[in-house]
């Protein structure tokens, strides 16, 4: 496991996972439309078995469970124990969904035990993506399907582009396109990873949406909430983690100014750009 991945696993087991749980409803609302598009592309049928990779707090797993019904099964896996605990807590007892704290790129599951490998923004973080997808492909039955949503580049995602531009003169930031959530931003790289991992029939489709980012009873409250989400959850939170109070205050003001041009009242609406990716496990 690389140093970057070791840090990432520890972070999601701790602070990032806890912050996601605290902001679960708002963050799930932000990405819901992309998850719905990925589920539509996956086309889960009654009785099918689905592995939900990087399932987070379980919203996508519950949506998949509603599709496969009582005769099917969804296994949601995530490296974050706080998120898995939250998923278990919100899942009704009779729902055909189970949750496991595990790294999908390494966990041992029975070969050929799933009809669908699914993910809503959970596959961009592997330190060895080809190896990860090759490992997960072994759990997929011959002819089984893959469907996932992943972010396109930072330049197309204002929820990250705007704060990065606001912060770049205040704190040191990594190259935006090197940030883990955007590692699948180039469709050619995604196609190469899946092909090298043994998948066929790869289709990569752009999907754009205006999404709610921050909520509040007033427009000003919604903007404040959007800033709070930006600086407490995700890669930019790490850039500010060890900064003194005056730098953090300056960053807060800069991001707030960047968001003032957004539309919306009770929630700020901001552009998001993703790929919806499908592929298939060869039958032979």
What does this protein structure show overall?
The chain has helices spanning 3-13, 15-22, 24-42, 59-68, 81-90, 129-137, 158-167, 187-196, 219-232, 235-240, 245-259; strands at 49-53, 73-78, 97-101, 114-120, 140-151, 200-215, 267-280. The protein has 284 residues and is of the alpha/beta class. The chain has a single domain (3-280), classed as 3-Layer(aba) Sandwich (Rossmann fold), CATH 3.40.50. Strand 4, helix 6 (129-137) and strand 5 (140-151) form a beta-alpha-beta unit. The protein is globular, with a radius of gyration of 19 Å.
Task: Note the main attributes of this structure.
284 residues, alpha/beta, Rossmann fold, seven-stranded mixed beta sheet, 7 strands, disordered N terminus
In short:
With 284 residues, the chain is α/β, with parallel strands linked by helices. Helix content is 43%, strand content 23%.
Q: What is the total tally of β strands?
A: 7
Main sheet record: 7 strands, mixed
| Total number of helices | 11
- CATH class bucket: Alpha Beta
What's the helix-strand series? HHHEHEHEEHEHHEHHHE
**Head-to-tail CA distance between termini:** 32 Å
Uncertain runs are 1-12
CATH fold node name: Rossmann fold
Radius of gyration: 19 Å
CATH architecture descriptor: 3-Layer(aba) Sandwich
What is the CATH homology-level superfamily? Vaccinia Virus protein VP39
Overall structural class, as computed from helix and strand content, comes to alpha/beta
Count of discrete domains: 1
Strands of the widest sheet, in order across it, are 3-2-1-4-5-7-6
Strand residues, percent: 15-25%
Q: How much helical structure, as a percent, in the residues?
A: 40-55%
Q: Give the CA-based shape.
A: globular
């Amino acid at each position: 496991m690389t140093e970057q991945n070791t840090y990432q696993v520890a972070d999601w087991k701790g602070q990032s996972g806890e912050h996601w749980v605290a902001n679960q409803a708002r963050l799930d609302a932000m990405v819901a439309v992309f998850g719905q598009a990925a589920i539509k592309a996956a086309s889960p049928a009654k009785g099918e078995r689905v592995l939900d990779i990087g399932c987070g707090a379980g919203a996508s797993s519950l949506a998949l469970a509603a599709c496969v019904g009582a005769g099917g099964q969804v296994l949601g896996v995530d490296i974050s124990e706080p998120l898995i605990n939250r998923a278990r807590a919100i899942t009704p007892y009779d729902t055909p969904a189970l949750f496991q704290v595990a790294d999908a790129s390494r966990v041992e599951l029975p070969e050929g035990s799933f009809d669908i490998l699914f993910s809503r923004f959970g596959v961009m973080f592997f330190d060895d993506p080809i190896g990860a997808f090759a490992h997960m492909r072994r759990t997929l039955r011959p002819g089984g399907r893959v469907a996932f949503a992943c972010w396109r580049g930072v330049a197309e995602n204002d929820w990250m582009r705007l704060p990065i531009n606001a912060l770049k003169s205040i704190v040191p930031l990594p190259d935006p396109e090197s940030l883990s959530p955007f590692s699948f931003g180039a469709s050619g790289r995604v196609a190469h990873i899946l092909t090298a991992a043994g998948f066929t029939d790869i289709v990569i489709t752009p999907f754009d949406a205006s999404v709610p980012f921050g909520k509040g009873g007033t427009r000003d409250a919604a903007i404040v909430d959007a800033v709070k989400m930006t600086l407490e959850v995700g890669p930019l939170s790490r850039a500010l983690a060890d900064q003194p109070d005056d730098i953090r205050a300056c960053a807060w003001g800069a991001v707030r100014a960047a968001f003032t041009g957004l539309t919306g009242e009770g929630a700020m609406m901001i552009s998001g750009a993703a790929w919806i990716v499908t592929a298939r496990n060869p039958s032979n």
